[in-house]
Structures are given as structure tokens and as C-alpha cells.
Write a structure and sequence with these properties.
The complex is a heterodimer of chains A (226) and B (374).
Chain A (H helix, E strand, L loop, with lengths): L7 E11 L6 E11 L3 E5 L6 H8 L7 E6 L2 E2 L5 H7 L1 E5 L10 H6 L9 H14 L15 H12 L6 E5 L7 H18 L2 E5 L3 H6 L2 E6 L2 E5 L1
Chain B lengths: L2 H11 L1 H39 L3 E5 L10 E2 L2 H6 L4 E14 L4 E9 L9 E6 L9 E5 H7 L6 E4 L2 E11 L2 H4 L2 E4 H8 L4 E2 L1 E6 L4 H14 L3 E5 H7 L1 H35 L1 H9 L4 H34 L15 H28 L2 H6 L2
Parallel strand pairs in B: 4-9, 6-8
Antiparallel strand pairs in B: 1-11, 1-12, 2-10, 3-4, 3-11, 5-8, 6-9, 7-8
Helix pairs in contact in B: 1-11, 2-8, 2-9, 2-11, 2-12, 9-12, 11-12
The chains are: A alpha/beta (226), B alpha+beta (374).
């Protein structure tokens, strides 16, 4: 269990989101609060709006109505590029590593927008890869890594600029059960060590069980929280 | 990792496409350098002729677009010499001849009066210059002598008539180095234009532009049906030079636009294929400006490769042209630094232009939409 200090890091109020064609309502008035240091799992069937909610919470997309606040500041007023670069890290189901770069170079990609001078980037990437147990694979390109290793590189990349918040969209969705356990254990360790807030969208009951709190969604609404 | 490393890896990751785009651009760059370079040297070489001889003005028959189509009475030279401001005047008859055995299709032949101002700027390398009373004598430019394998005292056939080489000269102008000079009467006889010249060159007492303008008006008012033009204007306005420049620029520009379109196509394809990659770059906080610079940087890197290859192709192309029978002696294979600079700037400018739209599209991508891209 971690240090949840009670102060909300994220607050969403009445989030509504339509898809581009305007006919499908992905979110129908979602409100939630995530506290500092908390590990929250968002669960629900495919197409229920979990990923859409995660993207809105991370400022990757804007709601059609409603508001997301980060530490009391409306997301709409934030410099979103700076927010993405420094305060939030994303982990995706498909990893999205750049195929031209090695593991170490992939980890350095967000650092171009971070506070680190060029001379420190390689060293920081090495440390991050060590933290996720991949220092021996630093020079490999993604195609030479197993899917579990790729996801660990993606997690190291998400931590590149020391974010306060880590948002993960089905981080174990493409992994076998052994790799899934590894990633889950790693996320737990990182959360303890770094005291970051973790919000995970997942289908996995195991991942959901590991969370402090579970938010269940269906048809664009929150249908349960425990 | 440096930002340039990322740019380089993206370019190298698609080697065939990047290489073909660079190659397409290099052909365009080479075309500009070779074509514009030739026309540039063409004009420069003509100007060198007039400058080295101290010629300030060229007189041709009014309405003639160049000396080859002009016809003037040689007697006009004395009238010109009497006009205030004229230091000296000399008739010149110009034609072209072929030396088929040596594959030289179009060699410039000048008919000059011995001791005229036209001999200024010419250095005799062997033998002697033309003398008054010389008959059936010919002076060969250094390059022509080399191409024909002739030396002093050798016999030579010019348009089926026999001459003797009395001297070999060198000039600052490539055209003169590839030309031959005959006594004016001999060439007049050969061309059936006795007493005629194609033009008269004038050396003025001052080279001041205002002075030359006044002299031009005096000449044209005192001698009817002639056009007097300051030498520099004459060269710049020469129909053949203008045509050569216009053609070289047009062809070069078309090639460059094709090169830029190739760049546009390559970068658009690259951006389309990497939509999700760009989405992740935006998701990790890359500002639009950085994405823009990344794509433009890739375009610039390909352009740099194209420019370097294009430069080499241009040098090889220029040298290869020297083997062409029609070009030999007429083409200066040197590449003017101004043309090189211009080609580099055009290559960079048009490549950036070709990369700008894909870069702007990439920078405008919304991260969520980009990550959803299949």
C-alpha cells in the first residue's frame, strides 16, 4: 500500500465525449476524483469509454462538455505540451516505441522536452532502464526485444521526465501471463519507489485487484466504484 | 542522443526511398549547375573578349539580333574614327566553320585586319601574329590547335581552302581559344562578302556609362541604319546568350520543381506511415514546433545528400561535355562559384518547400487521432 495523501491530483466533472461523426457518445457525464499517490484501475467491457476517459484525464483529447482538473487547475488552461512532457507519463497497450531507435534512445525521446541537458540524457536513460531491469538490453532495437521487454522500455520512457502521474491504457493487454505479472510487479514497485499516482485502464482482473480502487464503466458511464 | 541523430536514423531507416529522393534531387541540382553554368560561362567568356581588348561599344546593322546576321560596309570604320569620343575602331567578320575530320562541327572564325585593336588581349604562344599583306595565313587559338593537332607552319584546310598556320595564340576568352583568325580580306572572299563586316568594335576615349550613352547617340545620328550598343549591354542583350540563359534556367527550374515534388511525395509518404509515431511524440510532450523541425530536418538531410551527389554529377557532366564534338572548344567546364551557390540555395529552398507541407501536417496531428491511425 502506498502514500495516498488525500489531496486530489485529478478531478473530472460531467465529462461528455462524442466521437468525430457526432453520433456515438463515448462518455455520458463521467465524474471522478483520483487522489495523490493512488492506484486506480478503470475496468469495463470493450467500447465502454475507458480509453476515451483516460485520454481526457491525460489531456490527449478534450471533452465536448465537462471539465478535467489537474491539481485544481482546469486542463483547458494548462500548457498541454509542457504538461505531457513533465507531469504525466503514458503507457499504451501497443508500446509505440520508435523502431529506428534503440531501447536507450527510445527512453530519451521525451527528454528533448524535459529539463535535462543533453550530456545527462544517456545516463538518465541507463538508470531508467536499470530500474525496469533492462540495462543489458539498452542497445537493442524494439524488434529485438520480447513484448514484455518492449513494455518495460515504454514504462521507462513514460518515467523519463519524472512525472507525478502515470496513465496506462491496457499495459498488459498484449502480454502473456508471465509478462503481465512482471509488468504489474514493476508498476507496483515504481509506484512505491517514486510515489506516483497510477491510473490504469484494464480488462485484467488481476491488475484491477492490485489497485487501491476500481472504477467500473459501462456504456460511457461509471457503474460502480470500490 | 542528439536531435540530429534522430533525424538521421529516420532518414536511414528507409534507405531506398531516401536514396532515390536524394538521387532525383541530385539530377535536378546537376542540371541547374551544368546548364546555368554553361550559359553563365558563355556570357562571361563573351564579356572577357570585349574587356581584354578595351572594346567599349559594338556597332551592328540596325535590327540585327547578333553579329552573325549583321552586315556593315568596312568603309564605315573611317567615319567612326572621326566621331568625337572614338579612340579606335576595327571591323570584324564572324562566321563558323567545320573540321569534320576532327569532329568539330562549329568552330568560330574571325576575319580581322592585322594590327587592329582586336589583337589586344591575345598572347602569341608560338609563331607570330598576322601582318599587313599576309595572304592565306591563319592564327589558331590554343584549344583549337590542340584539337586539330596543328602547329606553326602546318598547312590547314578551312572550308576547302588552303591556309598556313603562322601562329598559335591564347586569349582570356574560351571562345577565342577555340577559334581561328584569318586576314579580313581572305574571310570576306571566302564568304562572298567583299568589303563587308558583320560588326565594328569601338574603343572609346572614356568608359563612363554616361559618356558611352552620349557616344551611342552621336554614332547613331551620324551613321544611319546602325545600332551602337555598349559592349556589356551588347553581350547581355545578345539573342543567343539570352536564349541560352532562358533555356538553361527553364530546364533547370523544371528539374528542380520535379525534385521538390519528389521530396514532397517522399515526406508525405513517410509522415503517413509514421502517423502513430508522431502521435506518441506529441503524447510525450513534443511541441508542434519540434515535430515540424524533425520533418523539415529529414527533408534537409536528404537535400544535403542530393546536393553533394548533384555537385559531383555536375563536375562529371561538365567534363563529359568536353568530349562532345559540338561542345568542345565552346564550353568552359569550370563551375562558377555563384552558380554553385545558387544551386545549393535552390536545392535547400525547394527541398524545404517540398518538406513544409508534410511537416505542417505532421505538426498539426492530434495525438489521439494519430494514435488511433491504422
Amino acid at each position: 500500500m502506498s502514500d495516498v495523501d488525500g489531496a486530489p491530483i485529478l478531478r473530472a466533472e460531467g465529462l461528455v465525449k462524442y466521437y468525430a461523426d457526432g453520433n456515438v457518445q463515448a462518455l455520458r457525464g463521467v465524474s471522478l476524483e483520483v487522489r495523490n499517490g493512488e492506484f486506480v484501475a478503470i475496468t469495463g467491457p470493450s467500447g465502454c469509454g475507458k480509453s476515451t476517459l483516460l485520454h481526457l484525464l491525460g489531456g490527449l483529447d478534450r471533452p465536448d462538455s465537462g471539465e478535467v482538473q489537474f491539481r485544481g487547475e482546469p486542463m483547458a488552461k494548462l500548457d498541454l505540451d509542457a504538461f505531457h512532457a513533465r507531469r504525466v507519463g503514458f503507457v499504451f497497450q501497443s508500446f509505440y516505441l520508435l523502431p529506428t531507435l534503440t531501447a536507450a534512445e527510445n527512453v530519451q525521446v521525451p527528454m528533448f522536452e524535459g529539463p535535462w541537458p543533453r550530456s545527462e540524457r544517456a545516463g538518465r536513460a541507463s538508470k531508467l532502464l536499470e530500474e525496469v531491469g533492462l540495462s543489458h538490453r539498452a542497445g537493442q532495437r524494439p524488434t529485438r526485444l520480447s513484448v514484455g521487454e518492449r513494455q518495460r522500455v515504454a514504462i521507462a520512457r513514460a518515467l523519463a521526465n519524472e512525472p507525478e502521474l502515470l496513465l496506462a491504457d491496457e499495459p498488459t493487454g498484449n502480454l502473456d501471463s508471465a509478462s503481465q505479472d512482471e509488468i504489474l510487479r514493476l508498476l507496483g514497485q515504481l509506484r512505491e519507489r517514486r510515489r506516483i499516482t497510477l491510473v490504469i485502464v484494464t480488462h485484467s482482473e488481476e491488475v484491477a485487484r492490485a489497485a487501491d480502487r476500481r472504477i467500473a464503466m459501462k456504456d460511457g458511464r461509471i457503474v460502480g466504484a470500490e | 542522443m542528439r536531435f540530429i541523430t534522430l533525424i538521421g536514423k529516420n532518414v536511414v531507416h528507409r534507405p531506398m526511398r531516401s536514396a532515390l529522393t536524394a538521387l532525383g534531387l541530385s539530377v535536378a541540382i546537376a542540371a541547374v549547375i551544368v546548364l546555368v553554368g554553361i550559359s553563365w560561362n558563355f556570357e562571361r567568356s563573351f564579356l572577357a573578349i570585349y574587356r581584354s581588348k578595351g572594346i567599349d561599344m559594338v556597332i551592328v546593322h540596325a535590327g540585327s539580333s547578333n553579329q552573325l546576321s549583321s552586315s556593315l560596309d568596312v568603309g564605315m570604320v573611317d567615319r567612326l574614327r572621326r566621331i568625337e569620343g572614338v579612340a579606335d575602331a576595327a571591323p570584324t567578320l564572324v562566321d563558323t566553320v567545320a573540321f569534320e575530320d576532327q569532329n568539330l562541327a562549329s568552330v568560330l572564325v574571325d576575319g580581322w585586319e592585322p594590327d587592329s585593336l582586336l589583337f589586344k588581349g591575345i598572347r602569341i604562344l608560338s609563331g607570330r601574329s598576322l601582318r599587313p599583306g599576309d595572304d592565306r595565313s591563319v592564327l589558331l587559338g590554343r584549344v583549337l590547335a590542340l584539337n586539330l593537332g596543328k602547329k606553326v607552319d602546318d598547312p590547314i584546310q578551312v572550308s576547302g581552302e588552303s591556309f598556313r598556320v603562322v601562329g598559335i595564340f591564347e586569349s582570356d576568352s574560351l571562345f577565342e581559344n577555340g577559334a581561328l583568325v584569318l586576314p579580313l580580306p581572305d574571310l570576306q572572299k571566302m564568304m562572298g562578302r567583299e568589303g563587308q563586316a558583320t560588326g565594328i568594335v569601338v574603343s572609346a576615349t572614356s568608359s563612363d556609362a554616361t559618356f558611352l550613352d552620349g557616344l551611342r547617340r552621336r554614332i547613331e545620328s551620324e551613321i544611319p541604319a546602325v545600332a551602337a550598343t555598349p559592349a556589356r549591354d551588347y553581350v547581355v542583350a545578345d539573342t543567343q546568350i539570352r536564349l541560352a540563359k532562358a533555356m538553361s534556367w527553364t530546364t533547370g527550374l523544371i528539374a528542380m520543381v520535379m525534385g521538390a515534388l519528389g521530396m514532397l511525395n517522399t515526406m508525405l509518404m513517410s509522415i503517413f506511415e509514421r502517423t502513430r509515431e508522431i502521435g506518441i511524440l506529441r503524447a510525450v510532450g513534443w511541441r508542434r514546433r519540434r515535430v515540424l523541425v524533425l520533418v523539415l530536418g529529414e527533408a534537409l538531410l536528404i537535400a544535403t545528400a542530393g546536393i553533394l551527389i548533384g555537385g559531383v554529377l555536375a563536375v562529371v557532366g561538365m567534363r563529359a561535355l568536353m568530349f562532345s564534338p559540338t561542345a568542345r572548344g565552346f564550353i568552359d567546364p569550370s563551375i562558377p562559384i555563384e552558380v554553385l551557390g545558387l544551386a545549393v540555395l535552390m536545392g535547400i529552398g525547394l527541398s524545404l518547400l517540398g518538406g513544409l507541407y508534410p511537416a505542417a501536417r505532421a505538426a498539426a496531428l492530434d495525438p489521439t487521432e494519430a494514435l488511433r491511425h491504422e
